[in-house]
């Protein structure tokens, strides 16, 4: 099949290359000329394990191409996937759909044969209806179909998630486009993925409801961790005890910092805003958002307590600053709240992240990036394990001590408290 991915970010690039690897001809389009030029030179603009090899393989065999020419790319494609960003609006909590509608307007003038337009971006219920209206201004309804096919891949696991999804959701209001999409996904269905066909609006809502539910699970266990800290019991016992119940499940039940990333914060806000428009109060999700927003202050308070409220001139190390491991994505990472706040109080901060320097901290006072774990730990008063990179899991802190011992605040519970304390370190973790 001839496919066009509009927007070559985490979703567009990963799904584009995976579709190409399944034998389709895929053109990945982006308006960012630098990004497309980099990709044409075989350089990958994002960090995602396994992506580089797969892109190079499919680019070399010419199943995958890159372009900034949207019109031409649409002309030559049968199915067009919209994969542009849907961030939160600058004011309010609803999704900013300007990128989606700009793309729809551009597609409007390029429909030269029957086209299936698929939103892979996460878009609020009724967005497909709006795209259909835009396209109808210049095209007969029989010449196109608008479909919702939300993407569920996780950064850091994106290729595996795309190739072996639990389910593929396709929301379309006509049989023809459903048949084409089912055919496109046939190689994944034959490997065990469930294919679920719904009406378009339902598919749009499934994505938001799923993300809101996962965010709720994380927030739930984070609050239980707060209680565990007060009572003096281990939240991990609670997670195991709860998670073994098949109705609950063990995933997303690990206590830690506030959830972040490019999806949960914006999607939880957007679903409540959509519901408000439909005069429905999603009070559970609203409290999840509030609880998560308070979480960074709560963990910061713990840092103040650990340092006896003396932050000025304290040397603090951050191990990992991305919102989770195996990605370079900094969007809505809790480190973006914690590091500036500690800097404001006079701390001197060094951070090490396996994906390197982050421009987000370039203007924050007394914050520097270092290239090795060793450099990051030198002279530190407090080491905060912020992201659960494998690189940190086997550090032997004893090897890095010269003079006084630093304190360790393990926000991801990756170390055994007993083992670290036996080495003479003051050690704090979450909910235990
Ligand atoms: N990142 C994830 O893990 C993930 C997972 C599932 C769903 N999603 C959803 O997928 C969508 C895309 O997310 P992302 O993280 O890939 O975004 P991203 O910011 O990484 O990529 C979006 C790309 O679209 C390009 N773009 C914007 N307007 C364009 C236009 N008019 N023409 C061509 N290109 C244009 C941008 O330049 C950018 O490269 C969002 O709705 C997001 O919620 C993301």
Describe what you observe in this structure.
- Helix content is 41%, strand content 14%.
- The chain is α/β, with parallel strands linked by helices and 432 residues long.
- Helix 10 packs across helix 12 (264-277), helix 10 packs parallel to helix 13 (283-306) and helix 12 packs antiparallel against helix 13 (283-306).
- The termini are far apart.
- The relative contact order is 0.09.
- The model has no long low-confidence stretch (mean pLDDT 97).
- Residues 6-12, 29-32, 35, 70, 83-86, 99, 102-103, 121-122, 151, 153, 155, 262-263 line the site of nicotinamide-adenine-dinucleotide.
Main pleated sheet: 6 strands, parallel
Q: Percentage of helical residues?
A: 40-55%
**Oligomeric nature of the chains:** single chain
CATH class of the largest domain: Alpha Beta
Low-confidence stretches: none
The sequence of SSEs as H and E is: EHEHHEHEHEHEHEHHEHHHHEHEEHEEHE
Q: What ligands does this structure carry?
A: nicotinamide-adenine-dinucleotide
Number of helices: 16
- What is the CATH homology-level superfamily of the largest domain? NAD(P)-binding Rossmann-like Domain
Q: How many beta-strand elements?
A: 14
Strand order of the largest sheet: 3-2-1-4-5-6
Overall residue-averaged pLDDT value: 97
Summarize the structure.
The protein has 432 residues and is of the alpha/beta class.
Protein topology:
Blueprint lengths: L1 E5 L3 H12 L3 E5 L3 H8 L10 H10 L3 E4 L2 H6 L3 E4 L15 H11 L6 E5 L7 H10 L7 E5 L9 H6 L3 E5 L3 H10 L1 H4 L4 E5 L1 H32 L3 H9 L20 H14 L5 H24 L8 E5 L15 H10 L3 E5 L14 E3 L3 H5 L4 E4 L21 E4 L6 H6 L4 E3 L3
Helix pairs in contact: 1-3, 5-6, 10-12, 10-13, 12-13
This protein binds nicotinamide-adenine-dinucleotide.
């Amino acid at each position: 099949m001839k496919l066009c991915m509009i927007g070559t970010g985490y979703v567009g690039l990963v799904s584009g290359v995976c579709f190409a690897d399944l034998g389709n001809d895929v053109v990945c389009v982006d308006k960012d000329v630098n990004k497309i030029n980099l990709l044409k030179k075989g350089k990958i603009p994002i960090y995602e394990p396994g992506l580089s090899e797969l892109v190079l393989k499919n680019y070399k065999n010419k199943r995958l191409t890159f372009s900034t020419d949207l019109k031409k790319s649409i002309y030559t494609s049968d199915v067009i996937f919209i994969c542009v960003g849907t961030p939160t609006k600058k004011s309010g909590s609803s999704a900013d759909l300007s990128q989606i509608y700009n793309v729809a307007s551009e597609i409007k003038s390029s429909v030269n044969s029957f086209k299936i337009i698929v939103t892979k971006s996460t878009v609020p219920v009724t967005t497909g209806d709006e795209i259909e209206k835009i396209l109808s201004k210049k095209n007969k309804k029989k010449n196109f179909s608008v479909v919702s096919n939300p993407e569920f891949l996780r950064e850091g696991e994106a290729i595996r998630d795309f190739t072996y999804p639990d389910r593929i959701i396709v929301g379309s209001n006509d049989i023809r486009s459903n048949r084409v999409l089912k055919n496109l996904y046939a190689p994944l269905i034959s490997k065990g993925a469930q294919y679920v066909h719904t009406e378009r609006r339902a598919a749009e809502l499934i994505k938001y409801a799923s993300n809101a539910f996962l965010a709720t699970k994380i927030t739930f266990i984070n609050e239980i961790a707060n209680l565990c800290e007060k009572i003096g019991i281990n939240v991990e016992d609670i997670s195991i005890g709860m998670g073994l119940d098949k109705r609950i499940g063990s995933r997303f039940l690990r206590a830690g910092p506030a959830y972040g990333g490019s999806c949960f914060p914006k999607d939880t806000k957007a679903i409540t805003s959509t519901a408000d428009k439909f005069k429905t109060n999603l009070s559970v999700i609203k409290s999840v958002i509030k609880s998560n927003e308070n979480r960074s202050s709560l963990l910061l308070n713990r840092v103040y307590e650990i340092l006896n409220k003396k932050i000025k001139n304290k040397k603090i190390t951050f191990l990992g600053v991305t919102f989770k491991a195996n990605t370079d994505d900094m969007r809505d990472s809790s480190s973006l709240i914690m590091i500036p706040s500690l800097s404001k109080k006079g701390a001197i901060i060094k951070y090490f992240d396996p994906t390197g320097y982050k421009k987000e901290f370039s203007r924050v006072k007394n914050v520097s990036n270092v290239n090795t774990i060793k450099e990051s730990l030198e002279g530190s008063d407090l080491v905060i394990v912020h992201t659960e990179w494998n690189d940190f899991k086997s550090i032997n802190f004893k090897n890095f001590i010269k003079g006084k011992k630093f304190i360790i605040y393990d926000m991801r519970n990756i170390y055994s408290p007993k083992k670290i304390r036996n080495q003479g370190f003051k050690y704090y973790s979450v909910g235990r």
